[in-house]
Amino acid sequence: MAQLVLLPGKDRSLARRHPWIFAAAVDRLSGRARPGDTVEVVAANGRPLARAAWSPESKIRARVWTFDAEETVDDAFFKRRIQAAVDRRRLTPELGEQEGLRLIHGESDGLPGLIADRYGDTVVLQLTATGPEKWRQAIIGALRLATGCQRIYERSDSHVRRLEGLDPVTGWAFGAAPENTLSIVENGVRMQIDVVAGHKTGFYLDQRDNRLLTRSLAAGRATLNCFCYTGGFSLQALAGGASSVLSIDSSGPALATAVQNLALNPQLAVSRAEWREADVFTELRALKSDGRRFDLIILDPPKFAPSAAHAERAARAYRDINAFAFRLLNPGGLLMSYSCSGGIRSEHFQQIVADAAVDAGRDARILRRLAAPPDHPVALHFSEGEYLKGLLCQAD
Ligand code: SAH
């Protein structure tokens, strides 16, 4: 096994169990390793620290598989780690019954670069780094064993693969496409899932709890759902008795699915739902000049800042939409505002929303801080895992 030798003093983050080794921490690779190979990580004085996956093209030069420098990384390793991640969710009461569930959340489940989501008996796999790319077959075998699923679809088409020098890979890795359209029931609402062409692995599982919260807040409220995708928040708002729900997204296919999703749920009032294909930035202004007002507004935009380098421009965009949302709120109205940008930390996000309220001339207070549900855990030593943050604010 090749040795990855760190520069003096650069073993500190590893000692705190942070799993990333940046190029700037590396002295040299001693021996030969191909992308994805397991290397032994050693301190400048030669002390073994960890075993990691080598990724020569990425700024993150290696990702730690194990901090036990003696542990072998082989098929059995993936069986153990994957089974453990699946078991943890089974033993979490609020997750055990969910048809749509994240089974493996990368670094926070001790499996850097590996995502697996379950939609009923279908598992969707996403590999984003050279390490899991090398162990694809072991991972697929371990997922079959741990879940007993009928089929596995691979959606390794995230843009971050390019940073690793990897091309996109998609297709059925085990089993075949289901005969009927895939769907799950999420907290009483049926939602179609397009694992082939949908966003991420097909659905935004990370907003499950927040959609449920929306349902508990919606009774009698005129609701606006911006960036609605396939209507998750909209349908929960209808289930909660919203007086009306206006939903906006720029994606025609996402809206078409949203309309179908509503039809799949005959218990929900179709007449209270309105869908608009539009750019949210433009549409919020138009709603203001039309004199529309709302009692509950959801803002769940895409990742404006994938990394800290984009934070400034992203902050401007977040501030704009939040200011417009505050202007559209009736007195006492609620704003649920999210950022899923890894490059914007939660204190920064709060500052942006506070500035937006000032722009709109509104006073508001935070009723709740919102995050992803427990199938998207954040390892204590890996704060990067806390990408989704939200605020539930009430305006005066
Ligand atoms: N809230 C959704 C997920 C939102 S994902 C859920 O719970 O499932 C972000 C969505 O924003 C995507 O559907 C994307 O099509 C849409 N989008 C991105 N930029 C947009 C823009 N400028 N205007 C309107 N929609 C946009």
From TrEMBL:
Q: Where in the cell is it found?
A: Cytoplasm
- The protein's name is Class I SAM-dependent rRNA methyltransferase
Report whether tRNA processing shows up as a keyword of the record.
no
What family classification does the UniProt entry report for this protein? Answer: Belongs to the methyltransferase superfamily. RlmI family.
Question: SUPFAM superfamilies this protein is in?
Answer: PUA domain-like, S-adenosyl-L-methionine-dependent methyltransferases
Q: Which GO terms describe its molecular function?
A: methyltransferase activity; RNA binding
CC annotations in GO: cytoplasm
User: Which keywords does the record carry?
Assistant: Cytoplasm, Methyltransferase, RNA-binding, rRNA processing, S-adenosyl-L-methionine, Transferase
Native species of this protein?
A: Candidatus Accumulibacter affinis
Q: Which CDD domains match?
A: AdoMet_MTases (cd02440), PUA_RlmI (cd21153), RlmI_M_like (cd11572)
Report the Pfam families cross-referenced here.
Answer: Methyltrans_SAM, PUA_3
Q: Which residues form the PUA domain?
A: 2-87
* The keyword Transferase appears for this protein: yes
What the entry lists under InterPro entries is as follows: PUA, PUA-like_sf, PUA_sf, RlmI-like_PUA, SAM-dep_methyl-trfase, SAM-dependent_MTases_sf
- One Gene Ontology term from the biological process aspect of the record: rRNA processing
Q: Which SMART domains match?
A: PUA (SM00359)
Q: Which domain of life is it from?
A: Bacteria
User: What is the predominant subcellular site recorded for this chain?
Assistant: cytoplasm
